[in-house]
Each structure stands twice: as structure tokens, then as C-alpha cells.
Amino acid sequence: MLQGAPWLLAHRSMLKPNQPFKVSLYGNDYVLWLDSVGKISCLPNACPHLGAMLSEGWCAKKADGTSTVVCPFHALEFDSNGCTVLPNSNKQTKSLSKPLELIIQDDFIWTYGGYEAKISIPTILKDFATEYEFIGHSKNFSVKTELLTMLLNMHDYDHQNGTHRPLFEITEVQFQKFIDNGHHSHAYFDLIRKQPKLNDLLKNPGLLAIPNTINAHLENFFPFCVIVHGESPFASVKQIHFFVPESQTHTRTYVLVYGKAKHPIAHLIKKNFVRLAEVIVEQDVDILGKLYTNIPQNIKMSNEIGMDWAKRNFANFPLIVEPNLSR
């Protein structure tokens, strides 16, 4: 599961103040919570008494604005260090649950999962937060698939006119260029699509911002995110897909959306950009649940260069090796 890579556990907007939020990483469950003064804490999700899920409990607010997470079984309160005060005692215990080390960069909540960092966190997300309006986030999807299969799907540029045909009416993929910079890459390709039907536009007005020919630019940071750079006459949109290896068999994915309006109509439909991203993920999740993953690959498509990039980096992580990509 690529220990030593950074994983974005959540964006601050995904946390409601003083409400426990469950996340999973490397087969372990954790509880995140945000207090009233903006501090974010993270503990193992199992209460060290009898193993109750702390994420099913609540937060107890303190006079100074901080808060503790409360076990739903016996109402034991745990602070950010994993310490508690037992009933009939005025003395705080030592740390009973080791906090997960977080790296907080503005609204981005990163972690290396307790492992030594092998690759660095890119600065591009902080740049987006400075230059673009944060529009919102999709819901979380816990997908029954291992991390590699999830990454291969995201770098499969030929699946646009199959998996996403019902949404975009894509008829053809014309691949242009792939730039390989080790764990960082760019893919450029054109998606030729039919005009959306009126009924589709009424369901998702965000389709108005999508041209007949989509000049796709995907920027990839192995293994944790893919950035879809979207340009239209209405807006410039950054759609960032994140991946978190919950376990050997499950991967969590979600999308953050940033935008910059070019036309007043963009302000009216900007929330639809988030829903559009969510529909794309729903379609990917659906097809990933309908794969026979043990079938050998006997066909190679013409545009699998991104998939080869992902396979190469996965097999050699954390090393960067010479490109050996499809042509």
C-alpha cells in the first residue's frame, strides 16, 4: 500500500466542528475531529477500554474552545494526546492511544500514516487555494478495490467513451501527449462528444460549461491524486481526485473542486461542478465493481501510456526508474 507516500485524509471543509469523523488508512481506523479553535486531532478509532468506535461517540467542548472525543460506551473522554480521566479520579492518565501524526497545510490534512516520508507533498494544492475559489467537495466513496486497480482506472484514458459515455456522450478519444517526470506526469488528449440532450442539461446544468470537444489535461501526482484541469468559456475549473488506501481490499476516493469564473453564469452553476465530479466517480465505482480482476490482460489499447506509468511507479516505489511506456 505504498508506505511512505503522503495521503490527504480530508479537507478542513469535510469536518464539522466538534463532530467525530472516521477515516481508515493501511488497515487501521482513526477518528478525526475539529475543535472550536480550529485544532484538528486524530486518534485510533478503538477506545482503549473495550474497543468501542470513538467515531460513533461525540465531542465534549471545553471552556477554552478545545474539545475531547467521547466514547459512546462508557463516556470516557480522550484528548488529542489520547489521555483520559477515569471515573472517581481527578488524575489524567498517560497516553493510552497513540495519535496519528498529521501535517496540516492550511485546509489540507495530510499524513504519512506513521511511516518515514519517501516522497514530498506537492505545493500545487496550496497554489490552487490562493488563486482559485474553493467550490466544494464530493462525498466519500469507499471502493472495494485495491489501490493499484483504482490508479489504473484513473489513468485509463480509453475508458472515457465507455464508462462515461452516458454522461458526456463521448464518441472518440484522440490522445495527444504524455509528459513523464517520474512521480509527476501530464496527459493531454481530446474527447469528442455529442451535444447533450435537454433532459441531461436540466438534470445537471454543469454540462453547459463543457464544450463539444474537451481538451483534457490531467496532471498526476503518484500515487495520491489526479488533477483535471478544465477550461471553458464560462470558468476555469480544477477537479482534484484523491485516493487513500484504506486497506488491502478497499480504497477511499473523493474530489475537491476549485474554480475561477470567466462569465457570470459560472456563479449560478458552480455547485453543479461538484455534482458533475461526483457523478464521474459514481460511474467509475460502478464499473470497478463489475470487473473480473483475475482475468489476464490479452488486449492492449493504444492509449495505455498512463496505465504503464502507474504500473511502473507502483512496482518500483519509492524509486524513480527510466520510462518504459507504451507508444
Write a compact overview of the structure shown:
The protein is an alpha+beta fold.
Explain this structure.
The protein is an alpha+beta fold and about 325 residues long. It has 2 domains: about 5-110, Rieske Iron-sulfur Protein (3-layer Sandwich), CATH 2.102.10.10; about 125-315, Naphthalene 1,2-dioxygenase Alpha Subunit, Chain A, domain 1 (Alpha-Beta Complex). Helices cover about 20% and strands about 35% of the residues. It has 6 helices and 17 strands. The protein has helices at about 125-130, 145-155, 165-170, 200-205, 265-290, 305-315; strands spanning about 5-10, 20-25, 30-35, 40-45, 60, 65-70, 75-80, 105, 110, 135, 140-145, 170-180, 185-195, 215-220, 225-230, 235-245, 250-260. The strands form 4 sheets. Strands 10, 11, 12, 13, 14, 15, 16 and 17 form an 8-stranded antiparallel beta sheet that branches. A 3-stranded antiparallel beta sheet has the order 1-9-8, with no helix packed on it. Strands 2-3-4 form a 3-stranded antiparallel beta sheet, with no helix packed on it. A hairpin with a 3-residue loop joins strand 15 (about 225-230) and strand 16 (about 235-245). The longest helix is centred in the last third of the chain and has 24 residues, at about 265-290. The protein starts with 6 loop residues before the first strand and ends in an 11-residue tail after the last helix.
